[in-house]
Structures are given as structure tokens and as C-alpha cells.
């Protein structure tokens, strides 16, 4: 077969293009540190890359969720600790108030402190994390607890409803006025509702409840919540020897209200505060178990992120030393092909006419 200059030139150009393409690919691998640039480069590697990247993205999101869950629970535990300290102080003041040696000024001082502690309980129960009220169930945008002045004295509301509508009330409020107050506000009496549990996804197929609901901490209903205990203590410090409560049946219209009068004994208040403190301890114990679970999940998901990141790197990333050698080799081959091509392409018939 006759070999012409055109054939040699075309072959040289083709080789140059091939070597240039290999050089370009080697440069791209070295600069991007990635084995493939397009799925078509290696479909198997590309398929695995998508799978591993999805795993890593999910694991990293779970990692963020775990950190948020842990922070929420830490804030909650701190608030419950503060509430426990307040109740312990209330118990101390109740014991002091039981003494017959207290002067009127001493009782006034204790009464003022108890009033401040009641407000502190409300403040603690309105604790927020990242702009969300942690004891409000699903209604995290609004502070759940408030103290409202009424015809029957100061009453605490929870999510806009009276936590203990017929709770301890001074006998200085007439029975008819107390009855009218309870009847007119019967539809605003807090009723037990379905659990409002806020859950975080903290792993592959794993969830954890992060919140503690306020009514489970303070208690609810007449005579079974911390605010009723405080109100009885305040009445006792004010010199009262009795108080009244109301049992409200709002199944009828109008509601049926039954008022009862009770003897006021500070020893009973101390017993109530013990029950309030026990309720807080139980809430902390339950929360503590969940905090331990989140701590273990944090370690597990951190290991998952590391594992999947390593798998993703092994699948996609080039060997740096190998990529460097490939690049050097491709550069050398291309330079040689340029030298050879220059000699071939530059030849013409004139070069042979001497």
C-alpha cells in the first residue's frame, strides 16, 4: 500500500488529538480529584456515588437533628431543675410560716417572696429554645402560662384556659360571686387533651420525643397543681384559716358549680408541695432516659457519617499519587507527539527537491 504525506499528516493529527484528549482527562481528574466527570465515564461508580451521597446527606441531617434534640432537652432539664429549686424553697418557707413565733413583718416578707416565686414558676414554664416555648406542646409560638387577675383572685392560665378554674379562693369572695365567675368561665376551663409529642428523626428509622408537656409538670385540675399549692400558702400567710374551691360540671348549659369550704392547714400545703416536687422529679427522670438515648444516637450517627463519607470517598475520589503519575505521563506523551508531529506535518514535496 502506498503511504502518502496526507495519510501521514492525518495520522499524526489524529494521534495528537487522542493524546490531547488523554491529557485533558488526566488534568481534569487531577484538578477535581474525582474519578468521573460524567455518569457515562463509569456508570457503576456513578450509581454508587448517588447512593452514597444520599446516605451522607441523610446522615448529616440526622446529625443536625440529634444536636437540636440534645439542646432542646438540655434546656428542658435546666428548667425542670430550676423549678425543683423553687419548690424546695417554697417548702422551706412553708415550714417557716408554720412557726408560731413569726411576727407580722416576717409573714409579710415570706408572703412577698412566695408571690415572687409564683411568678418565677410561670417564667420557668415559659422557657423557650430557639424561639419555641418548650412546655407548650404543639403551640410553641406563644407563651403557654400567664397569671390573670379575676374576680376570684389571681388565676393561672395555660394556653389561654384556666388551669384550675375552681382552685383555692379566698372566703372573702362571696360564694355567689365565686359561683358566677366559675359559671361564666366554664368554657374556658382547661381540659385534658391528647398528648402533643414533638418528635425528631435522629437516625435511620429512629425517632425520639424531645418535649415535656407543661401540664405534666405543673399538674392540672383543682387541688392537683403547683399553683393551687402556692395559692393556699399565700392565703395562709394572709391569715386565712379556710378557703373555698368549686367543682364544675360543664356538660350542662349553664354549667353546674358546687362550692365547698375547706380548713386551711399549712401541713397540708407541705404535703401538696411534696407531690408537686415528686411530679417534677418524675418528669426529669423520664427526660433523663431520653437524653441518654439521644447521647447514644449522637455517637452512632457520627460514626455513620464517617463511614458513609469514607465509602463515598473511596468510590469517587482518585488516588492522588496515581493521578499525578498519569498527568505527568500524559504531558510527556503529548509533548513527544507534538515533536514527532511537527516533523511529519512540516514535510512537503519541496523538502525532497534538492
Automatic annotation (TrEMBL):
Q: Which family does this protein fall into?
A: Belongs to the bacterial flagellin family.
Q: What is this protein called?
A: Flagellar hook-associated protein 3 FlgL
Localized where? Answer: Bacterial flagellum
Q: Does the keyword Methyltransferase apply?
A: no
Any one GO molecular-function label of the UniProt entry = structural molecule activity
The major lineage groups are: Bacteria, Bacillati, Bacillota, Hydrogenispora
In terms of SUPFAM superfamilies, this protein maps to: Phase 1 flagellin (SSF64518)
Please state every residue range assigned to the domain named Flagellin N-terminal.
3-140
Report the Pfam families cross-referenced here: Flagellin_C, Flagellin_N
Domain Flagellin C-terminal span(s) in chain numbering:
274-351
Q: GO CC annotations?
A: bacterial-type flagellum hook
- Cite the InterPro entries for this sequence: Flagell_FlgL (IPR013384), Flagellin (IPR001492), Flagellin_C (IPR046358), Flagellin_N (IPR001029)
